Amino acid sequence: MKIQPTTYDGYKLLHEGVLALADIEENGMCIDIEYCKKQQNHLARRIKHLEKKLLKDKTVKKWKKKYGSQFNFDSDTQMAKMFNVDSAKQEVMEQIGDPIIDTLILRKRLSKARNTYVANYIREAVDGMLHPFFHLHTTRSIRSSCSNINFQNQPVRIELIKKIVRRAVIPRPGNIIGEIDYSGQEVKVATCNHKDPEMIKELNDPSRDMHRDMAMMCYKVPKDLMTSKIRYCGKNKFVFPQFYGDYYVHNATDLWNAITTLNLELKNGIPLHKHLKSNKLGTYSKFESHIKKVEKYFWEDKFSVYADWKQQIWDDYCDTGQVFLYSGFVCSGYMERNKVINMPIQGPAFHCLLWSLIKINKWLKETGKQTKVIGQIHDSIVLDIYPPELNEVIEKCRKIMTEDIVTHWPWLIVQLKIDVELTPVDGSWYLKEEVKRADCHECGSSWMWQKEDGDEEYWECPVCENIETVPF
DNA sequence: CCAGGACGCGCG
DNA sequence: AAAGCGCGCGTCCTGG
Predict the structure, then answer these.
(1) Most confident among A144-148, A192-196, A465-469 (mean pLDDT)
(2) Residue A171 · residue A387 · CB < 8 Å
(3) Is the pLDDT of residue A470 over 90?
(4) Which residue has its C-alpha nearest to nucleotide B12's C1'?
(5) Which domains, from first to last, does chain A contain?
(6) For A297 and C7, how far is CA from C1' in angstroms?
(7) Cβ atoms of A380 and A181 closer than 8 Å
(8) CB A381 within 8 Å of CB A397
(9) What pTM was computed for the model?
(10) Are A24 and A375 in contact, with CB atoms under 8 Å apart?
């Protein structure tokens, strides 16, 4: 497969992109090495402790006896064999229902945190600074990649592991780490391609919520009994997989397994399994044929224009052997259907970030700011922010990322939006939380955390820790 | 003994 | 007709 620029604009994006990413590499980020070393020892002890506990288990005892000196907790082959499964994947292991599995999974997670993440901070940091490489020449998608360390896959989904790992990344003394991300950028860039009026309505009407609606449909849950967990499953086990070309059998399996592994229940406390049973979806095979119907509705009724576009882009590729990208590129060579459909979306979505990154970095340099870009994660920019520059920097980023870019690329026909997350002054990356527009009367910062204490809502300033009960 | 493949898992 | 896209890294394991 080959991919190349079709326009000078495309070429220039990569050229200037490489230079901007080189600046970011040079800037680097601060690492709390002392913390990393302590944490590494702590994790070693914790893992050893878990292994001691595991060795008291019946199955693990058998496992050790069978393999003797070859016995190894890290061997997936051994583990799968002992538990009579084809694969040692977590989702497979979880289905066994043996209580020892939780401990085995925890051991695996802690081991990964130690051996992959914390160890690499220590290995790659020089004098407390880390300089990950950001590449633009490695991927099939024309996204970026990142190595030594891979800053783009630092844990965030599991609270315990997130804390262990992200605690190591800290701002320069007196500064704040800020992350500005495009919200829903891939869905929006897809929409710029297919222009499905139903999706445009979804995106323009803030009262609508397709992830919630699809979750409701998949599990037959009425609106007033919905929970955020059920919505999460609709979004991540049906909607997104469908956009990437997944199909109902896989979706149904995932959605079905999630009911037990995530302990799903309705808002009124009724277990989801019970709820499905009373709606005649009590067995997997009934549930699967239900999801088949949901898939049919999704593509034939709800997003039929999107479906037509997918067919069109595939037909065009079959005729010409080419796929064109709005950001100024063409792909040719052998590709499977799902890859073809994805190509015009994934790359250009990243290119919006890259274009913005180039402008933001240039502005920071030209105006002599102390704030620096220190990283990039596909649809977000990570900054080390000098607090007196906070308001100005965020405003400039907002303007570039949501206004200037639309002027540059008129194919961006839907409204773009950013979200902002900040750490406290001197606070680690783990502590970053979303901020909203709200003025702090103490220090003049325009961005505050919206917090709750029981029924009481209040606002806290990341810069000066001031608390406001009535902002603005 | 080493290189490279397979697998698993972290992220968007 | 095929059956989720894109990455990097650590570990195990196989074949030469």
Answers:
(1) A192-196
(2) no
(3) no
(4) A378
(5) 29-130 (1.20.1060), 174-185+345-468 (3.30.70.370), 188-344 (no CATH)
(6) 32
(7) yes
(8) yes
(9) 0.96
(10) yes
